[in-house]
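Severity: low
Component: inverse-folding endpoint
Summary: output formatting inconsistent between runs
Steps to reproduce: submit the following structure tokens with default settings.
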């Protein structure tokens, strides 16, 4: 055997032989991953073996390949491999729920849907330390195209961006990433997706009587609920869990007191607080007390409703659905010939406008509706053209502009007519 063949045979005996990496599902959950690679620092074969909580075998295999690459390139490996986006996001979501950072059922639903349908398909198998600013920017461009073709609204996509922002900010701190890929990624402009003068999603003072009258005629089971919404400005989520009986009732009709201290979003789950974290004790005027008594006496039509502690139970005694008022609002609007669209959110917006028309002070309005800030109160307000016209007229009257008009001039044509006066023409030429 020649010397060259001996050398080749010798090398075949001593040369490290990389093995095919493997992934095995564990009975207790997760995967066992194992593989070998040549350590560039020692020239020897090194085994990489660890357990990982991954969503599927592909994700586990991706993590293994990342660790094997570190062995081959001489990078320092840690006992805990870098997680993928899906693994980190799922863990962070679980931690936030346990810590109470995401408390409501709707909040959990928002996160779950955002991850499942939008973020995981785009970033799921990607290792957290390999997500770049350009990756997020490209995804944002794709979402911009969806906004332009009307598939999504900017408000919706901004919700997804905010969830992504929370995840990557946590990753920067927990995984000690070099930089945040979300830096410089802005939310979409929503200035063109707002309520307009033609579509304010609010009823005027003149439209209210017909709307309420038709609501009582067509949908009497919703009439008292709608009255509280319009006259207190509260969200449906704070009205659905109101209790009329039981050990801790929220409606004390003999005292004319309403306690607003809970919130209902999804299913049978109730939060022991409101969205704004404000608990309210509201003294109701007699007419609202009478409406609630009428509702209890006449609109609890099934045994389950009468046995329920809720003030506004569904027919089975449970909570009304979030969409319970959508069809009634559409039906009533059509019946009275309303040309604009109004949704249940119109109740909260209309209350602000009614209170302003009644010249209720802002601080009192916020104390009733539960708005935490003046900014949010303004956000839910719609200032109509007639209201602006009257306000301008009041300012003009206060300023005493009539005294500056020529004697005998009218408010409509005084300035124009006055300029025909010879003295005024002379003054104008000079």
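Observed output (run 2 of 3):
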């Amino acid at each position: 055997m020649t010397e060259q063949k001996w050398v080749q045979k010798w090398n075949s005996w001593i040369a490290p032989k990389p093995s095919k990496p493997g992934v095995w599902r564990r009975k207790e959950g997760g995967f066992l991953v194992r593989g070998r690679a040549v350590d560039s620092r020692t020239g020897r074969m090194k085994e990489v073996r660890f357990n990982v909580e991954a969503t599927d075998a592909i994700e586990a295999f991706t993590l293994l390949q990342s660790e094997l690459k570190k062995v081959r390139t001489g990078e320092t490996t840690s006992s805990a491999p870098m997680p993928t986006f899906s693994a980190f996001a799922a863990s962070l979501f679980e931690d936030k729920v346990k810590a109470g950072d995401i408390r409501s059922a709707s909040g959990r639903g928002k996160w779950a849907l955002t991850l499942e349908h939008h973020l995981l398909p785009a970033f799921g198998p990607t290792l957290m330390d390999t997500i770049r600013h350009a990756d997020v920017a490209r995804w944002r461009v794709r979402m911009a195209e969806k906004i332009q073709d009307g598939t999504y609204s900017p408000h919706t996509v901004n919700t997804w961006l905010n969830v992504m922002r929370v995840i990557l900010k946590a990753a920067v701190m927990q995984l000690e990433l070099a930089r945040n890929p979300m830096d410089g990624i802005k939310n979409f402009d929503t200035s063109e997706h707002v309520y307009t003068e033609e579509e304010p999603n609010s009823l005027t003072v003149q439209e209210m009587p017909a709307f309420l009258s038709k609501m009582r005629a067509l949908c009497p089971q919703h009439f008292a609920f709608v009255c509280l919404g319009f006259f207190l400005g509260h969200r449906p989520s704070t009205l659905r869990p109101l209790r009329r009986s039981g050990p801790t009732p929220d409606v004390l009709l003999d005292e004319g007191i309403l306690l607003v201290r809970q919130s209902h979003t999804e299913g049978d789950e109730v939060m022991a607080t409101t969205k704004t974290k404000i608990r309210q004790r509201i003294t109701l005027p007699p007419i609202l007390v009478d409406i609630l008594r009428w509702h209890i006496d006449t609109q609890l039509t099934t045994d389950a409703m009468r046995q329920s502690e809720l003030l506004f139970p569904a027919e089975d005694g449970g909570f009304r659905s979030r969409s319970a008022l959508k069809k009634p609002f559409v039906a009533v609007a059509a019946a009275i010939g309303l040309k604009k669209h109004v949704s249940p959110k119109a109740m909260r917006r209309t209350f602000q406008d009614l209170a302003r028309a009644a010249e209720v002070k802002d601080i009192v309005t916020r104390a009733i509706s539960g708005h935490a800030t003046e900014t949010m109160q303004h956000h839910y307000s719609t200032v109509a053209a007639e209201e602006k016209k009257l306000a301008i007229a009041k300012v003009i009257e206060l300023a005493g502009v009539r005294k500056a008009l020529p004697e005998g001039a009218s408010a409509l044509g005084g300035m124009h007519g006055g300029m025909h006066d010879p003295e005024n023409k002379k003054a104008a030429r000079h």
